[in-house]
Design brief:
alpha+beta, Trna Endonuclease, Chain: A, domain 1, five-stranded mixed β-sheet, three-stranded antiparallel β-sheet, 45% helix
């Protein structure tokens, strides 16, 4: 139970931090246990960008997520129209965010975030906000995606270059 109380406290902390950054935010009540549907821990949006966040915290290193947790996050995010993010918080550090595909996948099909990786390459709340501020409307993002896909179809870009741009 102590672990759940700490996790709940960390999720509330994340909600408050996202709120302070200008996001409308809500914590999914008892995500993972109150319903048969798998819900992310936190939903946040600012009218431009929307995020579904699976929040994990650890006093040690590393943080592990099951393949099922990641699959559920990506599935929900796609259906909801949000960007999936794993939020990682290590004791005495800030929150860091990752797209699920940027996480290390173990041989057993689980995912891992090391503290060192979070500090070096994780996105901060300010990064999420800046991406939102730079991203423009959904219509603009969709038009940009069409342009990139057309460039791939025309042979101007290869798939890896397009993936980086998107």
């Amino acid at each position: 139970m102590v672990r759940n109380r700490k996790g709940d406290r960390r999720e509330r902390e994340l909600v408050n931090r996202l709120d302070e950054a200008g996001f409308a935010v809500m914590r999914a009540p008892a995500s993972g246990s109150a319903t048969q549907r798998e819900l992310p821990d936190v939903l946040a949006g600012d009218g431009e960008s929307f995020y579904a966040v699976e929040a994990k915290s650890s006093s040690g290193d590393p943080i592990y997520l099951t393949g099922e947790e990641i699959e559920a996050l990506v599935y929900f995010s796609q259906n909801f129209g949000a960007r999936p993010k794993v939020g990682a918080r290590f004791d005495r550090e800030d929150w860091y965010f990752f797209h699920p595909h940027d996480l290390h996948q173990t041989d057993g099909g689980n995912y891992r975030v090391k503290k060192e990786t979070a500090l070096e390459s994780g996105e901060t709340i300010a990064d999420l906000k800046a991406a939102s501020d730079d991203g423009g409307s959904d219509a603009n993002r969709a038009e940009n995606a069409r342009k990139v896909l057309n460039a791939v179809a025309q042979g101007v870009l290869d798939v890896d270059e397009a993936a980086e741009m998107l």
